[in-house]
Amino acid sequence: DGSYEQFELDDLSRPRPASRTKRTYRQKRRESDGLFTRFLALLRPSPPRSNGINPILPSVQQYPARWLQTILPGKFQRAILLIISLIIWAVAFGVPLVHSKGTVTDAAGQVVTHLDCVDTLWRRNNECGLDGIDCRPFSNESFAFRCPADCAGVRVLNPHHVGPQDVNYRPLVMGGPVYRGDSFVCGAAIHAGVINDAGGGCGRVSLVGEYYGFFSSAHNGIESIAFDSYFPLSFTVSKDDDIHCNGNNSKGPDPRHLLLPISLIFTILLSLLTTSPASLFFPTFVILFAHVALVSDPPAVSGPSDAILPTLFSIFIGRLLPSLFCAAILFSTCVNPTLSKLPSSSSSDNNPSGGFQLEKTILWLLPCWLAALSNTTLAWIPLKQATGRGVVNEYFRFGFIIGKDGRAGDYTEAGTWFGNGTWSRGAGYW
What we know:
Elements lengths: L17 H4 L3 H19 L14 H14 L3 H27 L11 E2 L24 E9 L12 E3 L2 E3 L11 E2 L4 H8 L8 E8 L2 E4 L3 E2 L2 E2 L3 E5 L2 E5 L16 H19 L3 H20 L6 E2 L3 H32 L17 H16 L1 H4 L10 H8 L3 E4 L5 E5 L2 E4 L4 E3 L5
Parallel strand pairs: 1-2, 13-15
Antiparallel strand pairs: 1-12, 2-6, 3-4, 5-11, 6-11, 7-10, 8-9, 13-14, 15-16
Helix pairs in contact: 4-6, 6-7, 6-9, 7-8
């Protein structure tokens, strides 16, 4: 066994440059950017070109703006016309609003109480105290009230226990013609035929104290809920011809049916006559905000009728100021590029009067109004029920049958059957 010497052979191969063996971060970033750029190139037209549209009858669409520029050639003159038009709109908007939501008195000179659609005589949760002592008197009292329009579709959105049943996604009206004290007063007035749902109206509530046996009935689009026990507070609803307010016993219709055409016509004329994006966007934004906040979807307020308008205007101003800040951001980032005049694809001539007035009115102003009136235009979609709990409670009402060994044996309706024959209602809700 001889010893062997081992020699390490030197690597005689030429070393490769570092650029070939290891790519730098910039090289990888450049390659990824190149792939993304090539992907975007597949989506855009080839060769690249500026987007443009051919307006329908451009001479007809340009006529209103050109006519206004011919009569009032100066920008200052058109600005004065815009201010005067806004003042006219404010007067036309405010007079019906004050007439419908202003102070109303009854025959005795008492101020009528304005109610929201969900107002009840019996307070929520345990606010009435033990035996309802904080909600007295229970009888021998009456007061005049006024309800807004569209109260028939107002429903409870959480399970409300009425005797052995859980009421959900339906108007909370129990009984008739004598109603339980925790019923919606405006819903009960519609059910009794005192007011109509389209226009609201006024009536008189009379407290009748404790009552036993509230029967279910369906009238005027509302099906009341039965309750076969007693309740310490109940009431009736009747008409009062001495009260003059909006609705079925009024001197005029509900204001939303009159104010919507006024605001809509004004914004359409503004869209057809103006070519400046700022002159169209900010007045339209204020008009839409005022219409939603004061007419179509006002905040829930209740109290004496002489305090309703000041409360609504206070809430409106408090919400308008921060909204204008958001509107300015939207205008600079989204609206101004959208409303700026696009070049025509058939000609490179950019007419200062614009030829897209009709497209702008239909494709921008109309969707803007549809979105602002979403509480009406999208009312057929049950958006308030589109929650996990709401879907389960509405469409998957089930519970469990629990055996003696504690295991779930079968499904049943909402609740839980136990092996000893007892029933726990509502335990199956998620």
